[in-house]
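thought: fold this chain, then report.
action: predict
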Amino acid sequence: MSKICGGIFTSHVPGIGKAIAQNLQNDPYWKPFFDGFDPIHRWLAAEKPDVAVVFYNDHGLNFFLDKMPTFAIGAANEYRHEDEGWGIAFARPFQGHADLSWHIIEHVVASEFDPVMCQAMTVDHAVAVPFELCWPGKDAFPTKLIPIAINTVQHPLPSPKRCHDLGKAVGRAIESWGGNEKVVIFGTGGLSHQLEGERAGHINVDYDKFCLRNLAPDPEALLQHDTLDIVELAGSQGVEILNWIAARGALTGSVRELASNYHVPISNTAAATVLLSHSERVLA
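observation:
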């Protein structure tokens, strides 16, 4: 049976992608953030996951305000990153796992979710930056991709509980998959930040640390705020914590924090990285 080996939660700021493209990892401004990936690199080298299921939000590359699905799941055998205007276009393609994607889709539909099924899909910085951070300098990514996009842009947004429940359905689907793949779960985005309006530059360290403190031991604590509460607390883009909440829901067994890094600011964003180990739940 397939196994979920752990979870990686990280910011996906496009400025990080530009720093990678310009080899600024050791620049004093960027180094505290990039240093947070040292334990993740060691863990990935030891675990060697076969598949990464990535909960993220699309930034207008596939979906725009006139057509914005609440949830969308990629079911392609290959994905490519495209430049959205940030001046970064990472060339390495992402190999998909269409069979496992369809298994997940079938399971979440049976769990009464209604995702858009995408047999052709490009990915933006919300997927590409975390992959570049986790597997730097390789000719090809060693891990296949299954992207799951969550609407964090066009209101009404899904509730934190709905996203957590989606994650749980995805986790159960992976557990029931008949293959022997080792799967890592990603939640990308955030933490608190706002890019526009009177509160541009808003960062809420207290809320960020609340999320970091509870992510592993008590993820349901993050469900006490509805989406409008989160916008108020964390900023209009800080609502990307929904991706983290969904990813945490997919870790259905025993979870332990292995590493955590928090650095403020990175391009007007509270940047964070968390690594969680995962042991399978005991089925009754």
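thought: worth noting. The chain has one domain: 3-279.
final: tokens above.
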